[in-house]
Structure formats: structure tokens, C-alpha cells
Amino acid sequence: MDVENVKVDDNDVKKVLLGYLVHNCFKETAEAFIASTEMNCSADFSMDIDRRKPIYNHVMGGEPLKAIDLTNGVAPGLLLDNKDLHFDLLTLHFIELVRSRNAIGALEFAQRELTPFGKEKHYVDKLQDCMALLAYSEPETSPLFSLLSVDYRQNIADMLNRALLDHGKLPSYTSMERLLQQFTLVSQRLQQEQGGKDLHASFTLRTFLA
């Protein structure tokens, strides 16, 4: 098959881009993209974004308890069925209390909400890391600083967003992500066939989209 002569359908490209915008709750950009390309699209995507975006924003804003409340309202049972995600949201609230230097509040919250998770070995290491934050006067500069990073919030926000999409019977990964994953696999295979020679710099989505 002559790859260089394969024609890419313009409508397929538009669908990939729109899927990425909708997945990441870029409502205004998606609406502008639809208008400029004159795509035929269901209005349901707008309602879906309105349902997910406030939840995503609460996590990114350091308000995971509000995200939990909204999630329970729009997707009943989701967090009951996804205990790991629920745990991550609760520990994020603990971390936010530590960030605000509310050690007493953090301890009270941990005793009330996190103690039950300590009975399961799966959660012990993470709980220990969270509790260890209390030992530092400046947790942002401690060896556990990554727990207070924007990237940590982002990871939890993305996981919750995917869970909400899956709960709504929508794809939890975009076509763009799948294409990039395929690109990575092909690049790795080509590198192996060339005897391990580094043909390309290490691929990441962040650098690809930069």
C-alpha cells in the first residue's frame, strides 16, 4: 500500500478535531468550529459539555467535594462503582486542606472520610504519602510536592471526565488520542526494526501539540 498517496477525507479530519474539542469541554470553540466549517452536528454535544465542564472546573479549582456532589447528581452510582476515583477525589480534598495550612481540618477529614480506605492494602501507600504532607511546614517544597501540583489535579480531572463520558455511553478517549497512540506504536516498531536506533525524540502529547 502506497501510504504517501492515501487521501485523507476532510470531513474525517473535522470530526477528529470536533471530537477533541467536545471531549475537553471547549464548548465555545466547538460551536465556532461547527459554524465556520458548516458541519452538521447534533445539539446534544452542548448539553453534554454543560454537564461535565463544571465538574471538571471544580477539580481543577481545588474543590473536589463540589465535583463529587455534582457527579452524584448527574451520574448516580458512578463513584460507588469507581472506588479508586472516589478515593482520589477525597485525597485531593485532604491535599487542598494541607495546602491551605488547615492541619486540624485535614486530620478530621482524614479520620472521617479516609480511614475506611486504610483497611485495604491497595490504598495504604497513597494514604501514607498524603498524611506525610502534614510533617512539612512547606509541603510545596517537600519530596511529595507533586501531590500539590497542577498536573496532579489535571490527572484526576481527566480521569473523572473520562468516567463521566463512559457513564454517558460516550467514547472515553478521542479519535485524536487513538491516532497519536497508534503513531507512537508505529514509531516504536520502526525504531526496533532499525536495531534500536533513536529515529525520533521521545513522543509526548504535550510536545506534539506545542
Describe the structure concisely.
InterPro entries: CRA_dom, CTLH/CRA, CTLH_C, LisH, Ubq-SigPath_Reg. With 210 residues, the protein is mainly alpha-helical. The chain has eleven helices and no strands.
Q: Which blocks of ≥5 consecutive residues have pLDDT under 50?
A: 199-206
N- to C-terminal distance: 31 Å
User: Would you give the CATH topology?
Assistant: Serine Threonine Protein Phosphatase 5, Tetratricopeptide repeat
Provide the number of structural domains.
1
Calculate the mean pLDDT score and round it.
Answer: 81
Silhouette: globular
DSSP helix fraction: 55-70%
Strand content: under 5%
- Order of H and E elements: HHHHHHHHHHH
CATH class call: Mainly Alpha
Number of alpha- plus pi-helical segments: 11
Radius of gyration: 21 Å
Structural class: mainly alpha
Largest sheet, in brief, is:
none
State the CATH architecture: Alpha Horseshoe
What's the β-strand tally?
0
Helix and strand topology:
Layout: H1 10-23, H2 27-37, H3 44-60, H4 64-74, H5 78-81, H6 83-99, H7 103-114, H8 121-132, H9 150-167, H10 175-193, H11 205-209
How is this structure best described in words?
By secondary structure, this protein is mostly helical. The chain has a single domain (8-176), classed as Serine Threonine Protein Phosphatase 5, Tetratricopeptide repeat (Alpha Horseshoe), CATH 1.25.40. It has 11 helices and no strands. The two termini are 31 Å apart. Mean pLDDT is 81; it is low at 199-206. Residues 48-105 form the CTLH domain. It holds the Pfam family CTLH. InterPro entries: CRA_dom, CTLH/CRA, CTLH_C, LisH, Ubq-SigPath_Reg.
